[in-house]
Design goal:
Layout lengths: L15 E2 L5 E4 L2 H14 L3 E5 L7 H16 L4 E7 L15 H12 L6 E4 L14 E4 L2 E5 L15 E2 L2 E5 L1 H16 L5 E2 L12 H13 L22 E7 L5 H12 L3 E6 L6 H13 L2 E7 L20 H15 L1 H5 L3 E6 L5 E2 L3 E4 L3 E5 L5 H5 L3 E7 L6 H12 L2 E4 L13 H13 L1 H8 L1
Parallel strand pairs: 3-4, 4-5, 8-15, 12-13, 13-14
Antiparallel strand pairs: 1-11, 2-9, 3-6, 5-10, 6-7, 7-9, 11-18, 12-16, 14-19, 16-17, 17-18
Helix pairs in contact: 1-2, 6-7
Length: 454
């Protein structure tokens, strides 16, 4: 079934019934790390991990070591790790030439007697034009969903953390559905190869397979039996608590359309989290329409210093470090345009800042019914280039109201509300190298390209 193309409303989307006591919202990166390690240790049948990357650092090693220990103790355990093909074969941005995480995977495979297969998933022939941004961690019949990848900051292994959202669902049907998607649409694809084994093929040698794979991904959907739509709530009077897995890649994909539809059906309240303030035009239009309808909108975005690309002015300048300033200039223009709505508290902008830590939250809360958990950054790149997914929870009976409020409270705890656009810095306030670069980008209109691909 093609979501929305068949005319389905949000209420008719197929999903899996949930019990409120099987839904857990974690509030910190440290809790996420503890839960991940516990789930690995206790899994009896299967572990499927899908993330942008599994990094060669202390936290990444802790996860990989735990997988090897689990496999050694229970050889029958089905373990699969999926990461982005390109990201795994290069070093960190600005770190110079490096063999990437793939070389480390191979070293670990040789050093351990157990087999933990790690697959590289190439969503495009070049990383700049699309990566595996699909998320999900399955442990037996439980699912952890987060926009986080697996390294020191995402798992708060050392002093700093990168804050994300963390959802734990105990639901066998959903776990089966996600594993089926991994198996059917990725693990069996000719473009997908093991990274823990030697002699990894060169990207240029599998370009044809990658292009074919991307076209197949555009048609890929989670297999949710339509009978699941019959889930009823209390007293069998209305559909109850439900989770709907969604996926999409490329322009105008189903996930994009659902995000826009969620915004379009809002009547009272929209809350949006995004780490990089750079909405696609379709999202901006729906926000403007919602404001005209009188909907109250809260947008929580990271302060530029909480951006993972931010480099303090007293450190050597790198081109990539201009990105947080680029996003802030766009936020300032948006705030200036909507100063009236901000003055009457219909539009509320909140900047997240907590010391040297960084911000990576994404998602939507619509009225009191819908909550979207996703790795989608709600930017043009996510809407056009990367493979993205999400879990949409429908809660018409507000069974999760307290849990959702507790999650939002934990996010707001370290935010500051911007009441006037002049509270945000302008170009003239930025360091000289940043002003110079942004000015050059603006004159050549290259800033528009940067907004679309970064």
């Amino acid at each position: 079934m093609t979501l929305l193309s068949s005319g389905l409303s949000l209420a008719q989307l197929p999903g899996f019934p949930l019990h409120a006591d099987a839904v857990h919202l974690l509030h910190s990166a440290a809790e996420f790390r503890t839960e991940m390690l516990a789930q690995i240790a206790h899994a009896k049948n299967r572990i499927y991990l899908c993330s942008l990357y599994l990094q060669q650092d202390e936290a990444g090693a802790e996860i990989l070591d735990a997988l090897h220990v689990a496999k050694t103790a229970r050889p029958e355990l089905d373990i699969r790790v999926l990461v982005d093909w390109h990201r795994a074969q290069r070093g960190l941005i600005g770190a110079g030439k490096h063999g990437g995480n793939a070389a480390w995977y191979q070293e670990q495979a040789k050093a351990n007697s157990s087999i933990v297969p790690i697959y590289g998933v190439p969503v495009q022939t070049r990383e700049l034009f699309g990566v595996l941004h699909l998320k999900g961690f399955v442990f037996d019949d439980s699912v952890i969903y987060s926009g986080a990848s697996l390294n020191n900051v995402y798992l708060h292994k050392q002093d700093k953390y990168r804050h994300d959202r963390y959802l734990l669902l105990e639901n066998k049907a959903l776990a089966d559905c996600m594993v089926q998607f991994f198996s059917k649409h990725m693990l069996n694809a000719a473009a997908v190869h093991r990274l823990d084994l030697p002699e990894i093929p060169k990207t240029r040698s599998i370009r044809r397979e990658i292009r074919s794979f991307r076209e197949q991904l555009k048609l890929a959907r989670y297999d949710v039996p339509t009978v699941q739509q019959a889930s009823l709530g209390k007293n069998n009077k209305a559909p109850g608590l439900t989770v709907m897995p969604l996926v999409g890649v490329g322009k105008n994909n189903p996930l994009n359309r659902i995000i826009c539809q969620l915004l379009s059906v809002s009547l009272q309240q929209i809350t949006i989290c995004t780490p990089y303030f750079n909405f696609p035009l379709a999202v901006t239009r729906e926000i403007n329409r919602a404001l005209k309808r009188g909907v109250k909108i809260d947008i929580i975005v990271g302060d530029k210093t909480a951006n993972d690309f931010y480099i303090p002015p007293d450190q050597p300048f790198k081109i990539i470090s201009a990105l947080p300033y680029l996003y802030e200039t766009k936020l300032r223009r948006f705030a200036k345009m909507h100063q009236g709505a901000m003055a009457r508290r219909q539009l509320n902008l909140h900047l997240w800042h907590d010391g040297d830590n960084t911000y990576h939250l994404k998602g939507l809360w619509i009225d009191q019914q819908y909550c979207l958990m996703t790795g989608n950054n709600l930017n043009p790149r996510a809407f056009r280039l990367d493979l993205e997914n999400a879990l949409l929870i429908s809660d018409p009976g507000q069974e999760l109201a307290q849990k959702k409020q507790a999650e939002l409270a934990s996010i707001y705890r370290v935010t500051t509300q911007i009441t006037h656009y002049t509270a945000l810095q302008k170009l003239a306030d930025y360091p000289h190298e940043v002003r110079k670069l942004l000015g050059r980008l603006s004159r050549t209109m290259m800033d528009r390209l940067a907004y679309r691909v970064l």
